[in-house]
Amino acid sequence: MSRHLERLLQIDHLLRSSCGQTSISLAQALEVSDRTIRDDLAFLRDRYHAPLEYRKKTGWHYTNLAWRLPSISLSKGELFALTLGARMLEAYAGSAYEQELRSSIERLSERLPEQTWIDLQQLADERIIFRAGAQMVNLNPQIWQQLLEACRTSKRVWIRYYAATRLEESERVIDPYLLHIYRATNPYVIGFCHKRQEIRWFRIDRIQELRLLDETFERKSNFDPKTYLQKIFQHEVGGNPVSVAIWFDASAAPFIRERRWHITQEIEEHPDGSLTLHLTTSGLNDLKRWVLGYGKGAVVKAPTELVELVKAEVEGMRRNYHFLTTKEGVNL
C-alpha cells in the first residue's frame, strides 16, 4: 500500500471516529505537515467527491456518512468469501496467517456500511460451521515465515527434523521448492533433500529448528509442481510408479465413483454394481492405509507388493485381536 493511500485511509478513519478535527489536529495525528493534510483533503474532495465540509464548531466532517472512500472495491459477496476464509483458518488451528487475515478483513469491512458487516459476520458465525476434527497442528509462525522467505528467494535451509515414523530427530539441508497444504491441515515443504539426494516431503510442524543459509539453489529443470503433485497418491513419494488395481464391492463403489482419486485413474464397472479402480502411482504405504479404510469392501488385485502389504497388516490386526480375546481378565 502506498504512503499516500495509507494516509487517506487514516484521515477517513479519524473523520469518522472523532469530532472537531482540524487540519492541524490531523497533521499531528499523522505526523505530517498541515500543508500535506490540506492537500489530502482537497484530493479527497476533488478526486473522490468526498462530501467534506468545515465548520468552526465541528471541524472537518462528512455531510453524508454513507459515502465511502473507493480505495478498495469489494462487493458484499467478495467480503463474505474472505470472511469464510478467516473462519476456515480459525477451524484449522496453527494457521500462521489467522490473525493477519482477520485483521485485514476487519479493515476491509470499514468500507461497507456497519449493518452490512454485522449481517455478514452473523451469517458466517451462525449459519456456516467449519470443523477440523482431530487434524490440528501446532505450526511455528517463525519457521513458516522463514520457509516462505526461502522459497521466495531460493535460499537453502538447514533443519532439525523429527521423523514420527522412526521416533528420532535428524539434521537435513534442503532446497525448499514449494509449500503444500495437504487435506487443508497438514503443511508440508517439498524440496530437494541433500542427505537423500532426492525430492522429499517434510511436515512443517515437525521441523524443530530451521536456519536460512547463505547459499542459493536452482530448482531441477524437470520439476513441475502441478505435474508432480498430480502423479503421487495422497502425499507419499519415492519408488518407481506401478500399475494398481483395487476391487470395490457394490456398497463401497458409489464412494469411489464420486471423486477423482488420481490423474491416471480408470474405473472398470461390473454387472453386480462393483468396480475395479485402475491407476499408476508410487507410494504404496499410503495406498495400503487408504484401502484398509474400506475394510472388507475393498480388495487389492495388483501389484503383488501392495497385496502383501495389506495381507501383512490384516494378519497383524488379527493377531492383536486374537491376543485380546484369549488374554485372561480382559473384558471386550
Automatic annotation (TrEMBL):
Listed name of the protein: DNA-binding protein
What phylogenetic lineage does the species belong to?
Bacteria, Bacillati, Cyanobacteriota, Cyanophyceae, Oscillatoriophycideae
Q: What InterPro entries is this protein classified in? A: CBASS_pafABC_assoc_protein, PafC-like, WCX_dom, WH-like_DNA-bd_sf, WH_DNA-bd_sf, WYL_dom
Specify the domain of life of the species encoding this protein.
Bacteria
Keywords from UniProt, A to Z, are: DNA-binding
Q: Give every WYL domain span.
A: 143-211
Q: Outline the extent of the WCX domain.
A: 241-317
Pfam short name (any one): WCX
Give the Gene Ontology MF terms in alphabetical order: DNA binding
